[in-house]
Each structure stands twice: as structure tokens, then as C-alpha cells.
Design brief:
The protein is 59% helix and 9% strand. It has 15 helices and 5 strands.
Length: 281
């Protein structure tokens, strides 16, 4: 199976060093130079050592330069090209919709690419063992937190989420080492969410972060971090594009909990179904 070279680069980009980002941008902007050039020529263009380029190839999962070149050639010469994500003023409604859908698909693919087994496993265990689970998010991220609450209330584990940041601070102050908290922030550097995280950490709470930036204060401050990957367009910010990845990570956590906590979850789910059954026509 041919690996997705461009997808790997985009999904890992935020985690690259400055030198790696220089190589990554070169590949993204000039794929033809990789396909038709040698590792020596690429290294000379970038003014780096051949070994630096080789290590980059290994960094994104290839055995070497040649393997990356083959993958890149397969992608760029494929008759089935991804639709250009850049939305133009002359685009009709269907074209704009296609570009948004393709962007969302790419966000999901890239997020899955950087999802680490050890991280998702640790996060699931924190949630599974928790007495209570609180979800925190500010602004647009609060909507994701409420969606998480809407799902996890069915799990049989006491779950909570609040829109108001003052309520979030107060609820965090009541958590203990027996509880778990999930903090959602695209940038990972929101001042309010970091202050709420500090409140929870003082109480020994198990903390999980969902963000797009590995070097952010949030990712560095939580016990385990899960990352989303997204790309910014002219009419939609990177933060908005990352929502689909955040929702999918929440779905993945929920599905794992429901599967591993099956008996308790089934009882809780049945109670929820009974409670809302009369609301349907």
C-alpha cells in the first residue's frame, strides 16, 4: 500500500522542528523537484546535509528518500486529484460545498494519521476509571464540550459540561484525584482554559487535552494530549476546520468507553432512551 506523503507532512507539520518545516514546505511547494531530483540536489537547494533530508524521510514514515519519492509521484500523477481547497469568489454553491467536504475529509485523515496508540489508550483508561468526567472548553470549544457531555451522559459515568466559564471554574474546583477532565482548545493557549486546568491539577485530577498544537501550554500541561490536524482556508479558519477532528476524537473515546464498560453502559443507555422516548411524535 502506497503511503500518503503529502498527508503525512500536513498532519505532522505542527510537530516539526524549524529545519524540518523548511524541508516540508519545500516538498509541499515543489513536489516535482522531489520526483525528478536526487537527494543531493534537494539538499543543495535547501542548504542542508543529505543526512538531514534522509532523516526527514524517516521522520514521516518512509524507509528513505526513494520510498518518499515513489509515494509522492503516485499522489501527484494520480488521475484522481483532490479538489483544490482554495475557495474562489466565482465558485458556485456546489463547488464550495465540495471543497468544504474535501477539507473535512482531509482533516479526519490527517488527524487519524497522528493519533498515537499509547495516547488514546491512556486517555480511555483515565475515563474508564473515573468517578466523574468533566468536559471544558471556551468559546467554540465549549460546543464540543457540550457534545461530549451529550454522548458521555449515556455511558453510566457521571459526566458534566458547562458553557459559562465561571461555572467551569467552580466545577473544576470540586473534582478530585478520582475524577477525569477533558480540556478542548484548538490553539491550546487560551488563558481561561489554562486557568481552569490549573484548578483541576491542584486537586490531582487526571487530565486529557484535545488540541492542534503539540508545543502549546495545554498539551504540555495535561497528563495526556490528543491532537487534531486541520488546514486554514480563506473563508474558514483553521480553528473552525479542526472542529470535525475534535468531534471525531470525542466519538472515538465514547465508543471505546461504551465497549469496555458494556454492562453498565447498556443499563444507562436504556434509561436515557426511556427518558426521551415520549418526546418523539
Amino acid at each position: 500500500m502506497v503511503q500518503n506523503c503529502l498527508g503525512k507532512i500536513r498532519s505532522h507539520f505542527a510537530r516539526f522542528s524549524e529545519k524540518e518545516k523548511k524541508i516540508a514546505n519545500y516538498i509541499l511547494n515543489h513536489p516535482e523537484k522531489i520526483i525528478h531530483g536526487t537527494i543531493n540536489e534537494v539538499a543543495e537547494d535547501l542548504r542542508v546535509a543529505d543526512a538531514t533530508v534522509f532523516r526527514f524521510c524517516k521522520r514521516i514514515g518512509f524507509k528513505g528518500y526513494q520510498a518518499m519519492k515513489i509515494s509522492l509521484a503516485s499522489e501527484t500523477m494520480s488521475p484522481v486529484q483532490q479538489i483544490n481547497e482554495k475557495i474562489l469568489e466565482e465558485d458556485d454553491e456546489k463547488t464550495v460545498s465540495q471543497k468544504i467536504f474535501h477539507s473535512n475529509i482531509r482533516t479526519l485523515e490527517n488527524t487519524l494519521e497522528i493519533l498515537e496508540q499509547s495516547s488514546i489508550q491512556k486517555a480511555v483508561q483515565f475515563l474508564l476509571q473515573a468517578r466523574r468526567i468533566h468536559f471544558f472548553g471556551i468559546g467554540g470549544s465549549s460546543v464540543i464540550a457540550m457534545d461530549a457531555y451529550h454522548k458521555f451522559i449515556r455511558s453510566g459515568i457521571d459526566s458534566f459540561a458547562f458553557i459559562d466559564s465561571h461555572f467551569q471554574r467552580m466545577s473544576a474546583s470540586q473534582l478530585t484525584e478520582k475524577d477525569a477532565a477533558v480540556f478542548i482548545s484548538h490553539s491550546g493557549s487560551n488563558k481561561e482554559i489554562m486557568e481552569i486546568l490549573d484548578v483541576a491539577k491542584k486537586n490531582g485530577v487526571k487530565t486529557i487535552g484535545i488540541t492542534s498544537f503539540p508545543k502549546s501550554p495545554l498539551s504540555q500541561g495535561v497528563n495526556v494530549a490528543l491532537y487534531t490536524s486541520s488546514e486554514e482556508t480563506e473563508y474558514r479558519s483553521e480553528a473552525l476546520a479542526s472542529r470535525i477532528g475534535q468531534l471525531s476524537l470525542i466519538d472515538a473515546l465514547y465508543a471505546n468507553i461504551m465497549m469496555l464498560n458494556k454492562q453498565k453502559a447498556e443499563v444507562s443507555l436504556e434509561k436515557v432512551r426511556d427518558a426521551i422516548s415520549n418526546t418523539r411524535m
